[in-house]
Design brief:
The complex is a heterodimer of chains A (about 240) and B (about 425). Chain A is of the alpha/beta class and about 240 residues long. Chain A has 11 helices and 5 strands; from the N terminus they run H-E-H-E-H-E-H-E-H-E-H-H-H-H-H-H. Helices cover about 50% and strands about 10% of the residues of chain A. Chain B has 14 helices and 7 strands. Classes of the chains: A alpha/beta (about 240), B alpha/beta (about 425). Chains A and B meet through helix 2 and helix 7 of A and helix 8, helix 9, strand 3, strand 4 and helix 14 of B.
Chain lengths: ~240, ~425
C-alpha cells in the first residue's frame, strides 16, 4: 500500500506533457474484481486485455506485450503455480513487461514467491484505484513498489532487525545501513516522498535503494530465503 | 464353570420369553440358554449334550442349529453391543492340542510307511489347526476377557506346529497327496504368521490415505474460499472506501474467515504480535479506522503487557482523533522493542495538551516510564506519531521490562516465556499471518 502524495509527484509533471497511456493487462480469476479494478484505474492507464487463468495470461502477455501486468498471486490453470508460474513462463519478456503482483493475502510466501519469480512490486487488493494506478506508473518507470508488510518481511529475512549489515553495497545477502533505514520507514507506513524528507535524500535516491533491495530479494541466496523458497518449490 | 446366577431370576413367571444365549458362555451359550429357557439345571443340559454328541452326533447338530438361530441376549451397560461375548471354554488351545495329537499320529504312520492313512490324519490336523486359528480370530479377539497375548500365543503355536509337521512330513518323502498336504501346511503356517503384519500395514495405509484425503479437501476448501469469498470481501473493502462501515464489517469478516481457514497454523500462548493484531481488529470494529500492522522479529512466547497496554492506548487515540489509515510497526531485536504508531490525522499541539488528558500523559508516557521505557509523541499537520521504546531482556529473559519501581503492578508481572532455542525463524511472524 503506497500512500497519499506518493512517488507520483515526479510523474505529475510529466503528466502535463500528455505521455502516451500505459498499456495494462489485468490477470485475475475474479471477473467482478477485474471489472472493478478496470473502472477504478485512472485515465492514463489503458487496459488492453484481461485474463482469468495462467494459460490465458501467458498467451495474452505474449500477444499484447503490455507495459505493466497486474498479476493476481492465486490463479487457476497451468501447472497450478498461480502468478509465479505466469512470471516464469513469460520470463523472456521480463525486460519489456513489468509485473505488479496483486493479492488478497499478505503472507510472506505469496509475496516473496512472485517477487523472486520477477515481479517488480506487490500491492494488496484492498488498495484504492488511485493507489494501484500510482503503483503501476512506478513499476512502469522501472522502480519497485513495496508494501509496509513486504518491507517488514525484508527486514526480518535479511536479519536487519538482528543487526546484520552489509559491508559492501553489492553484497546480496545483507542490507546496507541506508537500505535498512528506508525499509524501516516504509514498514512504518511512510510514502517514498516522506522517506526522502525524513532521511534528507531525494525521492530518486529512495527509489534507487528500494530497487536495490528488490534485486537482493530476487537474487539473494541467503539461506532463510532459499530454504523457504525451496520448501515451497519456488526455485 | 457355572453360568452367572442372575439368568434365572431375570425371568418373570407366566410370561412366555424367547430363548436367549447369555453373553457369558461356555462355548456358544446354547446349553445355558436352553437351561434358562426350559428351567432345567444347566449342568444336566451340558452333560446331556456331551453324551448325545458322543453317541452319534445328534446333539452336536442340534447345538449348531440352536447356536445359529438363537439371538444373543441384549448388551447391557457400556459393553460394546457387537463384540462382547465371553466364552469360558478355551476352544482354540484345545483344538490346537487335538491337532498336535493328530499331527504326531500322522507323522508316526508316515514313518511306518502307511502313507494313505497318514495323509488323512494330517488333513485332520490341518483342519483342526485352521479351526483353532479361525476361532481365535473370530471369537477370542473380540472377547473382552481374553488378552491380546492369549490370541497371539495360540495362533503362533498353531502356525509353528503346522509348519513343523509339514516339514517333517516332507522329510519322509511321501507320495503326492501327502506332499500336497504338507506344502499347504507350510504355506498356511507362513500365512498365519505374516497376517498380523500385513493387516497392520494395510490399516495404517488406509488411515494415512484417509488423512491425506481429508487434508486435501480442507486445502481445496481453503483455496476455493481464498479465491472467491476473500476476493469479494477485498473488493467490498476496496469499493466502499477504507474507513466506511461496510468496509470495516467486510474486513472483520475477512479476518474471521482467515482465522478459521488457517486455524491450525495459529500460534499458541503469548505472542505480542498476535495480541497487537487482536487489539487492532477490536478497534477497527469500533472506530472508522484501518490498522496496517507490520511486525518484525520473533515473538513466539513473548508478551510485553505494559507495552501492549500503552500501544493500545495510542492506537485508540489514533482511531478516535485521526481515523483512516493508521500504520503500526513493531520491531523486536535482541535488546529492544520498538513500536511506532502513525496516523494521518490533523495532528495536535502537544505543548497545549491539557494536564488532565489522561490518555497520552498517563496511559502512554507515564506507563512506559514506569516500566523503564520511553514514549515519544510527535505531531504535525501531516499526522501524529507515537514511538514506544522498551529495553528487552534477551531471549531467556522472563520479565517484560525492568521496572525501576519495585511496586508489583500487574504490568510488571513475569511473562510466561520459556527459554527457547535461538534459531531465529525469520518467516515465523509473517507466515503466521495467514
Amino acid at each position: 500500500m503506497t500512500h497519499e502524495s506518493d512517488i507520483s509527484s515526479a510523474d505529475a509533471g510529466a503528466g502535463a506533457a500528455a505521455p502516451p497511456p500505459l498499456h495494462v493487462l489485468i490477470v485475475d480469476d475474479h471477473s467482478i474484481f477485474r471489472s472493478g479494478l478496470r473502472a477504478d484505474l485512472d485515465a492514463s492507464l489503458d487496459v488492453v486485455a484481461e485474463a482469468a487463468t495462467v494459460d490465458d495470461a501467458v498467451a495474452l502477455i505474449a500477444q499484447h506485450v503490455p507495459d505493466v501486468v497486474l498479476l493476481d498471486v492465486h490463479l487457476p490453470g497451468g501447472a497450478g503455480g498461480g502468478g509465479a508460474e505466469v512470471l516464469q513462463r513469460s520470463s523472456a519478456l521480463l525486460d519489456r513487461v513489468k509485473f505488479l503482483a496483486l493479492s488478497v493475502s499478505d503472507s510472506a510466501e505469496d509475496v516473496v514467491g512472485v517477487i523472486r519469480a520477477g515481479a517488480r512490486g506487490y500491492i494488496t487488493k484492498g488498495s484504492s484505484g488511485a493507489e494501484v494506478s500510482r503503483a503501476v506508473r512506478t513499476v512502469a518507470a522501472g522502480d519497485a513498489v513495496f508494501s509496509p508488510r513486504l518491507a517488514g518481511f525484508v527486514l526480518d529475512a535479511f536479519g536487519a532487525v538482528a543487526g546484520e549489515q552489509a559491508a559492501a553495497d553489492d553484497e546480496l545477502d545483507r542490507l546496507s545501513a541506508r537500505e535498512r533505514e528506508v525499509m524501516r520507514l516504509i514498514a512504518r507506513g511512510y510514502a517514498y516522498k516522506e522517506v526522502a524528507s525524513e532521511l534528507f535524500i531525494s525521492i530518486k535516491t529512495v527509489e534507487t535503494h528500494v530497487s536495490a533491495v528488490l534485486r537482493k530479494l530476487q537474487f539473494s541466496s541467503r539461506h532463510e530465503l532459499t530454504a523457504w523458497a525451496l520448501s515451497r518449490k519456488l526455485l | 464353570m457355572t453360568p452367572p446366577a442372575p439368568l434365572v431370576s431375570r425371568r418373570t413367571p407366566g410370561v412366555p420369553t424367547r430363548m436367549l444365549r447369555p453373553r457369558g458362555a461356555m462355548l456358544g451359550g446354547v446349553c445355558a440358554g436352553l437351561a434358562e429357557h426350559m428351567q432345567w439345571p444347566v449342568n444336566w443340559v451340558r452333560a446331556g449334550a456331551v453324551v448325545f454328541t458322543l453317541l452319534g452326533g445328534g446333539a452336536a447338530l442340534l447345538y449348531v442349529w440352536l447356536w445359529a438361530l438363537t439371538p444373543l441376549e441384549p448388551a447391557t451397560g457400556e459393553t460394546d453391543a457387537a463384540a462382547s461375548a465371553h466364552r469360558a471354554f478355551p476352544v482354540a488351545p484345545v483344538l490346537v492340542g487335538f491337532a498336535a495329537v493328530a499331527a504326531v499320529i500322522a507323522l508316526v504312520t508316515a514313518v511306518v510307511g502307511a502313507y494313505a492313512p497318514a495323509a488323512m490324519v494330517a488333513l485332520a490336523a490341518l483342519v483342526l489347526t485352521a479351526a483353532a486359528v479361525a476361532w481365535s480370530l473370530l471369537f477370542d479377539r473380540n472377547d473382552p476377557k481374553r488378552s491380546e497375548r492369549y490370541g497371539v500365543a495360540t495362533r503362533t503355536t498353531a502356525a509353528v506346529g503346522l509348519a513343523l509337521t509339514g516339514v517333517l512330513l516332507l522329510a519322509t518323502s511321501p507320495p503326492v497327496p501327502a506332499t500336497v498336504i504338507a506344502v499347504v501346511m507350510i504355506v498356511g503356517a507362513a500365512g498365519v504368521l505374516a497376517a498380523p503384519a500385513i493387516v497392520r500395514l494395510w490399516t495404517s495405509l488406509l488411515a494415512e490415505r484417509a488423512a491425506r484425503a481429508q487434508e486435501e479437501s480442507r486445502a481445496e476448501v481453503a483455496a476455493h474460499l481464498h479465491d472467491s469469498v476473500l476476493q469479494t470481501l477485498a473488493l467490498i473493502q476496496n469499493r466502499a472506501g477504507a474507513s466506511s462501515e461496510i468496509a470495516r464489517i467486510a474486513r472483520a469478516q475477512e479476518h474471521e474467515l482467515r482465522d478459521w481457514l488457517f486455524a491450525g497454523t495459529k500460534p499458541s500462548g503469548a505472542d505480542f504480535a498476535a495480541q497487537l493484531r487482536e487489539v487492532a481488529l477490536e478497534l477497527e470494529l469500533q472506530h472508522a479506522v484501518r490498522f496496517d500492522v507490520v511486525t518484525t522479529g520473533d515473538f513466539t512466547d513473548r508478551s510485553f503487557p505494559a507495552v501492549l497496554a500503552a500501544a493500545r492506548e495510542a492506537m485508540l487515540n489514533a482511531a478516535r482523533h485521526a481515523g483512516g489509515e493508521v500504520s503500526v510497526y513493531v520491531e523486536l531485536s535482541a535488546s529492544d522493542l520498538d513500536v511506532y504508531i502513525r496516523d494521518r490525522g490533523p495532528g495536535f499541539d502537544i505543548g497545549a495538551m491539557p494536564e488532565g488528558r489522561m490518555g497520552v500523559r498517563g496511559s502512554i508516557i507515564g506507563r512506559m516510564a514506569r516500566h523503564g521505557g520511553t514514549a515519544t509523541v510527535t505531531s504535525d499537520e501531516n499526522g501524529t506519531q507515537v514511538h514506544l521504546h522498551s529495553p528487552v531482556v534477551a531471549h531467556s529473559g522472563s520479565r517484560s521490562a525492568p521496572s525501576p519501581q519495585s511496586a508489583p503492578s500487574p504490568q510488571s508481572a513475569p511473562e510466561p516465556s520459556e527459554p527457547r532455542a535461538s534459531s531465529a525463524d525469520t518467516q515465523g511472524t509473517e507466515g503466521r499471518e495467514r
